[in-house]
Amino acid sequence: MRRFRKRTTLNAQRSMSKSEANPSDVSSIDAIVTAAYDSISGPAGEKRNWDRERSLYYPGAHLVPTARPVTSDECQVTSENQIAPQILDIEGFIARVEPFFKDNGFYEKEIARRTEQFGQIAHVWSTYESRHNADDPEPFMRGINSIQLFHDGSRWWIVTIYWQQESLVDPIPAKYVKAG
Q: Once rounded to an integer, what is the mean pLDDT over residues 31-57?
């Protein structure tokens, strides 16, 4: 009975996924993290491969930016500009970033990583840099992605990406950035 429930659950989960994943994108922790960065990166005006992006996420997955309102002064924390998580599903994330990508190049790459894994679950602490052009000498933004992953026996899935950008108030500690 236990095996039947497991198969039934996995089949239901697979059928809920809107896009079939490229097996090379989901075969390892490294592959899925790399695919997540690659799928959102590109020049201004280039439509991203949202089917590829969707295929990385477990049905019901959350993408959670943690930020202050864009109009706030990050050094003056008040009740109006408190930092807070904004919980999105994949469609909410796409709706949020697509207008920005239309007018702005966006290239995000990982610069450091810490990974912990037990059984079917993994946690990746991934420090990133973002640039408007792939060859920009300096990033316009840095931050940390906290990525929770699940392996269903045949592939890896992203369950949650929870991130925060670096700021004057919250600089990235040296221990989370690779030595140059």
A: 98
**Whether 150 contacts 159, CB under 8 Å:** yes
Domains of the chain: 2-176 (3.10.450.50)
For 55, other C-beta atoms within 10 Å of its C-beta total: 22
Please state the rounded mean pLDDT for residues 47-54.
Answer: 98
Length of the chain: 180
Cα distance between residue 145 and residue 142, in whole Å: 10
d(CA 34, CA 50) in angstroms, rounded, equals 15
- Identify which of 117, 122, 156 has the alpha carbon closest to the alpha carbon of residue 31: 156
Question: What pTM does this model have?
Answer: 0.83
- Quick one: average pLDDT of 157-177? 95
At 119, the amino acid letter reads G
CB 144 within 8 A of CB 126: yes
Q: Provide the percentage of residues in the chain whose pLDDT is more than 90.
A: 76
Token match 């912990």: residue? Answer: 116
Reduced to 3 states (helix: H, G, I; strand: E, B; else coil), residue 60 is: strand
